[in-house]
Write a structure and sequence with these properties.
four-stranded antiparallel sheet; Alpha-Beta Plaits; Arc Repressor Mutant, subunit A
Length: 249
C-alpha cells in the first residue's frame, strides 16, 4: 500500500478531533478556491473543482462555505491568492517524500516544512530529487471483508482501471486520472464500498519500515499534514499490518 493511503488508514483508526476537522475544512476551501481560479466555477467542466467539492461534501461542509470558496476563486468575492508549490525530500529510512502546498507566503512555508522534516529525522531536498519515483494515478482502496475479488476485478477493469492488487486487508484499485471518476462510479453502482478514493501520487516501489523508523515516519506525516499550508503528503513507505495495529492503537 502506498504511503499516502497507508497514512489515511491510520488517520481513520485514530479518528478526527474537532480541531483537526476545522483545519481540514481550511485545506479543502483553499483547494476549491485554487481549482475555481484555474479552471472556472462550473464543477461539470472543471474536474479538479468537482473533486474538491465532493471532498467537501464528504466532510459535511456547509453548502454556503463551498459556494463562497468558489466565488472567491473566480473573483466574484474578494479572497487570498494562493500559490501552488511542491517540496521534495527524504524521511526516516530514506523514504522519498513529496509535499504539496498552497500558500500566500512561500518563505514562511518553506521554513515551516524544513523545520518539520528536521524534527522527525528527515531532510528537505532539491526539486526533482524524488519526484521521478512517483506517478499520478487514481487510487481506490476497498476493504477485503465480504468482497468477491474476481467480481471486483471484473467491474474495475471493465470500467477502465489499470490494476487491482491485494494489499493485505484491502484491495487497491488503480486507474489513470482521466478514468478515475468512471471507475469509482462503476464500483459504487456494483455495491463495492471503499475506504479511500482520490487522485494521488503512487510510488514505483516502497520501503518497508518498522520500529523506530516507522514511528518517526508517521510523526513526520502528521507534523506535515498539521501545517496550515500543506495540502497533501506522499511517501514511498510500507508498514506491516501488525506494526500498523501497534502504531494506530
Amino acid at each position: 500500500m502506498s504511503g499516502h493511503s497507508k497514512w489515511s488508514t491510520i488517520k481513520r483508526k485514530k479518528g478526527a478531533a474537532d480541531a483537526k476537522r476545522g483545519k481540514l475544512f481550511t485545506k479543502i476551501i483553499k483547494e476549491i478556491m485554487v481549482a475555481a481560479r484555474m479552471g472556472g466555477g462550473d464543477i461539470n467542466a472543471n474536474p479538479r473543482l468537482r473533486s474538491a467539492v465532493l471532498a467537501a461534501k464528504a466532510e459535511n461542509m456547509p453548502k454556503d462555505n463551498i459556494d463562497r470558496a468558489i466565488k472567491k476563486g473566480t473573483g466574484e468575492l474578494e479572497g487570498v491568492n494562493y500559490e501552488e508549490l511542491s517540496y521534495e525530500g527524504y524521511g526516516p529510512g530514506g523514504v522519498a517524500m513529496l509535499v504539496e502546498v498552497l500558500t500566500d507566503n512561500k518563505n514562511r512555508t518553506v521554513a515551516d516544512v524544513r523545520h518539520i522534516f528536521s524534527k522527525y529525522n528527515g531532510n528537505l531536498g532539491e526539486n526533482g530529487c524524488v519526484s521521478w519515483m512517483f506517478e499520478k494515478k487514481g487510487l481506490i482502496v476497498v476493504e477485503k471483508r465480504g468482497v468477491d475479488e474476481d467480481r471486483l476485478m471484473e467491474v474495475a477493469l471493465e470500467a477502465g482501471a489499470l490494476d487491482v492488487k491485494d494489499s493485505g486487508k484491502e484491495f487497491e484499485v488503480t486507474a489513470d486520472p482521466a478514468s478515475f471518476e468512471s471507475v469509482k462510479k462503476a464500483l459504487e453502482e456494483a455495491g463495492f464500498k471503499y475506504n479511500y478514493a482520490e487522485i494521488t501520487m503512487v510510488a514505483q516501489s516502497n520501503i518497508r519500515l518498522s520500529g523506530r523508523e516507522a514511528e518517526q515516519m508517521l510523526k513526520l506525516m502528521e507534523g506535515l499534514e498539521d501545517s496550515d499550508d500543506v495540502q497533501k503528503v506522499y511517501g514511498n513507505f510500507d508498514i506491516a499490518e501488525e506494526e500498523m495495529e501497534r502504531l494506530s492503537a
